[in-house]
Amino acid sequence: KLSIQLNEQFAAAKKAIDEQASELVQDYQAKVSENKREIESILNQIDEVKKSTAELRRAQEKLDRENSLQAKVQNEHDKEGEEQHLRTTIMGMEEQITTRTQRIGGMEAEIKEMERRKAEEDDRSRKLQEELKGIKRSYDEMCSSSSSAEKRIRDEHEKQHAQLRENLEKITGK
Questions:
Q1: Which of 37, 68, 61 minimizes the C-alpha distance to 53?
Q2: Basic and acidic residues bias: where (predicted)?
Q3: How far apart are CA 172 and CA 4, in angstroms?
Q4: Rg (Cα) of the chain, in Å, rounded?
Q5: pLDDT recorded at residue 27
Q6: Where does residue 10 fall: left (phi above 0), alpha (psi -120 to 50 degrees), or beta otherwise?
Q7: pLDDT tens for each residue of 11-41
């Protein structure tokens, strides 16, 4: 009886252990299946991310090429704008140079005219100085002549005066 009882207990315990083991195995298999599904989902997501990354990389490369082309076009446009600005600046400078050259030409003509007038004035001044020297010489000669004439007149006057005095003394006896 004990052995039957032990066998029954053993069989009941074994059955309980088998059921628990079966449940554990089923739980474990369910968890493994769930983990496997999650891993497959994650792997699928990784594949999607890789695909998206590849698409993004291609799109970025295309965008970079377009930006590069656009930058080149903009650079060319900027260069054209700079060239136009430089052309405008150069034209303005050329106009200023032309205007200044014309002004310089006018000033040179004025200077030549002033030099011509100065030469005429210098010539007139030289002639007037020569004429003045002649007049001065003539004046000096006149003064000299006048002075000597004055001296002769004075001498003559003194002679006459002395003669008159002498004649008066003879007449008056004094």
A1: 61
A2: 74-83, 113-140, 149-174
A3: 227
A4: 70
A5: 92
A6: alpha
A7: 888 899 989 999 999 999 999 999 999 999 9
Per residue in 100-132, is it b (16+ CB within 10 Å) or e — as a string? eeeeeeeeeeeeeeeeeeeeeeeeeeeeeeeee
- Residue 174, both tokens: 């004094």
| Placement of tokens 């792997």 in the chain | 43
What are the structure tokens assigned to 53, written together? 């990354």
**What is the DSSP code string of the chain?**
-HHHHHHHHHHHHHHHHHHHHHHHHHHHHHHHHHHHHHHHHHHHHHHHHHHHHHHHHHHHHHHHHHHHHHHHHHHHHHHHHHHHHHHHHHHHHHHHHHHHHHHHHHHHHHHHHHHHHHHHHHHHHHHHHHHHHHHHHHHHHHHHHHHHHHHHHHHHHHHHHHHHHHHHHHHHT-
Written as six digits, the tokens of 45 are: 């997501």
Q: In this structure, what token pair is assigned to residue 128?
A: 């007037």
pTM for the structure as a whole? 0.37
Long-range contact pairs involving 99-107 (C-beta distance under 8 Å, separation at least 24): none
Mean pLDDT of 111-128: 91
